Amino acid sequence: MADILAAAWLIARKDLSIEFRTRSAFFSAVVFALLGLVIFYYAWDPTAVTATDLAPGVLWIIFTFSGLLGLHRSFGVEMADHAIDGLLASPVSREAIFLGKAIANLVFVAAVQAIAIPALALFYNLRLGDVAGPLIAIAILAAIGLVAVGTLFSAMAVNTRLAELLLPMLALPFFVPIVIAAAQATSKLLSGRPVVEAGAWLKLLLAFDIVFVAACTLAYPFTVED
Amino acid sequence: MSSAIVTGASAAPLVEVRGLVREFGSTRAVAGVTFTLAPGECLALFGPNGAGKTTLLRVLAGLLKPTSGSARVSGIQLPGGPLARSRIGLISHHTMLYEALSPRENVSFSAQLYGIRDSRGRVEDSLRRMSMLDRADTPIRSLSRGMQQRVSIARAMVHSPQVVLADEPYSGLDESGARALTALLQELRSAGTAIIVVTHNLAEGLSLATHAAVMQGGKFVRYDSVDRIDARSYTATYREALASSG
């Protein structure tokens, strides 16, 4: 297990170095997230819907779609000059490759969240200070689920001609339970309800993460077998 | 005390392939190939495009599963998992490099994938052998195709593999790069590494090899020991294979 985690970290570090040098996917995702916030802001009628009712949905829709930009890049970087063959021909296990990719994607999504959440608070005049801890917990739990499912489907879609279309088509139905649970939990927090009321949704996110991280890690080797 | 390297036919084979078949749907890319390679032996594999050469190498590299037959590398039945893969160095006409990273970073990443703990010396040595030390920190995307191929070769050699699978390794190399690669492969052979080279250049392949094969339609239509080869008849067979493949 230690070997798998060490190899996964090695691969994640390599992916993050590449993203740090190019920053192409990160800037795309951040710009997409901020533009999404702006569009929702101007489409919003504050006399009809309160900010605390609207913000959770906006936040999780934006994360879902901006996350897809990073997930698509995840295996795309391996396809340039068949770098994936070098990884698959190495003695590193397939599970370590998946976990490495997923860790890099998690850092990517978390970095986008770190910019988008304060921007959301600014646009919708939300006070996040009191709920920052639970909100971070929701964001991390939801990101783990999104990344586990998205990384697997990115691996499946990358070899197809319609990868950019196929990834959202495959992944979005699986994202629905995460978005519902994350949006509901965020809504409870933003409307000032006690954290314990969001507990059931947090447990659902945790259960989703445990099941899908394990299932996707085990399923990944089948996506690279011919 | 030094240990002698046993090479040639008397040693246990490093590569053993028996009746290997690999199909893609109804297409038989490799159709029953059999050969063995002992330490220090080199097989030069010739044949037209689509003959099955790359597929054969991909099966031996653990990237594809055989449909039937058997293949062993260092005595390990393929697909043999991490242990078998750790014995193999794969060179391809695709560089398998990350263009945003430098040669040093690419080779170092590969060394770490192969579990080499203190990899700095090995990385430097691999890059030096391919004359890439002075461009070691330039991003891959800024290098010429030939230089990228040199780095790719350094990447494949950094873990001192027992078996080298080289699929058109000379593609993109200039004269000095080709000379460096030939010298490196000859040195590896002398040290007991078994090598399979796929090339379209008969003279280059035969100068390196102990055995040569012409592949067509997934099969070996000729398989000879190089010292028994009449270069003229071999060229004729190769040309026939190219002509019949269209």
Q: Give the termini separation of chain A.
A: 26 Å
Major sheet strand order of chain B: 6-7-8-3-9-10
* Total of helices of chain B: 8
Indicate the proportion of strand residues of chain A.
under 5%
Share in helix of chain A: over 70%
* Main sheet: strands, sense, barrel of chain A: none
Residues in helices of chain B, as a percent range? 25-40%
Overall body shape of chain A: globular
Number of beta strands of chain A: 0
What are the secondary-structure elements of chain B, in order, as H or E?
A: EEEHEEHEHHHEHEHEEH
How is this structure best described in words?
The complex is a heterodimer of chains A (226) and B (246). Chain A is mainly alpha-helical. Chain A contains eight helices and no strands. The longest helix of chain A has 31 residues, at 94-124. The relative contact order of chain A is 0.14. The model of chain A has no long low-confidence stretch (mean pLDDT 90). Chain B is 35% helix and 25% strand. Chain B has eight helices and ten strands. In chain B, helix 3 (103-113) crosses helix 4, helix 3 (103-113) runs parallel beside helix 5 and helix 4 crosses helix 5. The N and C termini of chain B lie far apart (56 Å). Chains A and B meet through helix 1 and helix 4 of A and helix 2 and helix 3 of B.
